[in-house]
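Hello forum,

I keep getting stuck at the same step: I have a sequence, I want structure tokens, and every attempt I make locally crashes halfway through. Rather than fight my setup again tonight, could one of you with a working pipeline run this one for me? It's a single chain of 106 residues.
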Amino acid sequence: MLAHIIAPDTVFSASEAADYMGRSTRQVQRYLDAGLLSGNRNTGRWQISALAIWRFRGIEEEMMSAWVDYCVRFARSEMADEITNTPIVIEPAPFDRPEKPDPKNV
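Reply #2:
Ran it on my machine without issues. Output:
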């Protein structure tokens, strides 16, 4: 099984969280109702963050470490791309530019 990195603030519905956790939707709702899994029900439907799932599963530190490592590697990659993909423009020095005659002095 390939794991992919997700942000800790990724929000799941109860059924999406169940898929992510490998549990049934009903079991996830039981965890939420019992307060074992934290979530938000302000909109009438459960919303569960990836961070809450990581805490529930006891893998918060590992996943946050992986997330930070991913962000650092991504930022370095973006900086490297920016450096290698930035065209170098060499402007001619002022003395290399042909001078236009000043119409007042002609």
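The helical segments are 14-21, 25-34, 50-57, 60-85. If your local run keeps crashing, start a new thread with the error log.
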